């Protein structure tokens, strides 16, 4: 019986001009505007390819052992590291006309950058962050595997502007086994905004069902569903599935338009589609839960826009996540950040370590919020 | 008669105990409270198979809440609903397929075609495939909308929407049909068509519960009529029996006059 519900719900949503407008024209137009607006900014980033930074290393630093390989790898990516053992970083930058400076301390590092070389500084931060995030994860796993009491962790040091740091509890770590990911290559505004606008619109899937839900409530169709044999769980699943499919169809059309007209590259198309599909399921489950609790489409849309805007704000929907000034901890709280990062890295690198995390987070959201939505619906029905 | 004294059912004359037909629906002490407000108060009614049972009452009398409790849409505060000899709430899955509910609201989707609306609601009862197609055709034929099957419901007139509303509720061949004011806001032709179809359904074996504010409709089609006010049942009987409460010569009084006598003439701003 759910099959017929899903089929007819999809028909209703795809026949709604709202779906066409929001999910096909929406991302296409917004992405086109942003691509055009930020072309120059992203070109600045592209132009950071070759630059020189200075560095110093404190004796006994946890980074000492792996620094040689790191410098080689950075060099392959156009970032030349030069050792300046003496002098204040600020002075060295000025004297040697460097794009930045990295001081590797015992357990942490500090990045110094100038106002004139912000793009290079941000790129440097991002590359270091990517490297040591992987490295400390590896160290933590190694410690656990060897039954050692030590752990390794990552913490962003946001104490001063223009600095970032990674702290590893080196006293107990078995030594950092560093893995060097390929750094974010030169992504242009077309790929970045073409991708992240699709993600953003995927996260507001409930809007696709707004007209349908409003009609259902206005005509009290839910009462007819409750008289019938069909359970609340089945109706919920039918709504979740049908909206997900309808939104996916709309976004597929938008993606094809963006790809054909603007040349947006997706890397692994199938995996990218899977990530977007999972994100729709996860965020939609949350939105359906809000709808069950508020029992008001207007309130749901307002709350959804507020929550998703916040997720997008810290997750790279309005400024590139690699250049954003938001703390990493905040980014890590946004499901949109994981989807953005996975898809952007898939587009420009062909692979991303964030893909599993994205699926786990979206899947987890779907399961948890679905259970909550079904329970909330049951409670509301019992109280009437 | 004193319309203020409504603690007891003042008329329960029809001896349904002697009716050969079995009881299809029975409510026992059915009560619904919202906070301190009692909306339905200890309602006890029995409806026998093959009846067209009218439920009358002014606004706020508790008719819709009673219907909603019978249909399992609203949970009673107290009391039970027995449907086909079983507790309806405990056997909902098994029994709901025997119930067809035609709500006062036009519970149809405007952006679906006529046949798609019938398909959606009929499929909720587990009917599928070829059988579902047959039921769709049969239901649309029954309400005279076969030639409009491929048109969107939003393009229909008020009367056509009402008929489609009925088609969506009969596809699973229910034994008990509940009509909640099905003729509101439609032209006389559509109203006549719907009333004829209700009688036809009854002749074909369906039991009907019917609520309306149109007294002449109720008088024309119902075999027994119950009058509710302030959440209580105040009278049950045939149209003739209810009229006899007011005058001996029943030809001199209308059901509406009886209704106003029983429930009072004060406005009910509910």
Explain this structure.
The complex is a heterodimer of chains A (384) and B (270). Chain A has 384 residues and is mainly alpha-helical. Chain A is 64% helix and 6% strand. A 4-stranded mixed sheet of chain A has the order 2-1-3-4, with helices on both faces. In chain A, helix 4 links the parallel strand 1 and strand 2. Chain A has 15 helices and 4 strands. Chain B has a single domain, classed as P-loop containing nucleotide triphosphate hydrolases (Rossmann fold). Chain B starts with 10 loop residues before the first strand and ends in a 7-residue tail after the last helix. The N terminus of chain B is likely disordered. Classes of the chains: A mainly alpha (384), B alpha/beta (270). The interface between A and B is medium-sized, with 26 and 32 residues.
What's this, in brief?
The complex is a heterodimer of chains A (384) and B (270). Chain A has 384 residues and is mainly alpha-helical.
Mean model confidence by pLDDT of chain A: 81
Residues in helices of chain A, as a percent range: 55-70%
Helix proportion of residues of chain B, in percent? 25-40%
Round the mean pLDDT of chain B to the nearest integer and report it: 86
Number of domains of chain A: 2
Q: For this structure, what is the CATH class of chain B?
A: Alpha Beta
Under the CATH scheme, which architecture of chain B would be assigned?
3-Layer(aba) Sandwich
Strand content of chain A: 5-15%
What tags apply to this protein structure?
heterodimer; A: 384 residues; mainly alpha; Rossmann fold; 2 domains; four-stranded mixed sheet; B: 270 residues; alpha/beta; seven-stranded mixed sheet; four-stranded antiparallel sheet; 9 helices; 11 strands
List the helices and strands and how they pair.
The complex is a heterodimer of chains A (384) and B (270).
Chain A: H1 2-14, H2 17-37, H3 39-46, E1 51-57, H4 64-76, E2 79-83, H5 89-96, E3 100-104, E4 109-113, H6 118-145, H7 189-202, H8 210-218, H9 221-227, H10 232-262, H11 269-294, H12 297-315, H13 328-332, H14 335-349, H15 355-383
Parallel strand pairs in A: 1-2, 1-3
Antiparallel strand pairs in A: 3-4
Chain B: E1 11-12, E2 23-34, E3 37-48, E4 52-56, H1 63-70, E5 78-83, E6 86-87, H2 92-95, E7 99-102, H3 114-123, H4 129-142, H5 158-170, E8 176-180, H6 188-203, E9 207-211, H7 215-221, E10 224-229, E11 232-237, H8 239-244, H9 255-263
Parallel strand pairs in B: 1-11, 4-9, 4-10, 7-8, 8-9
Antiparallel strand pairs in B: 2-3, 2-5, 5-6, 10-11
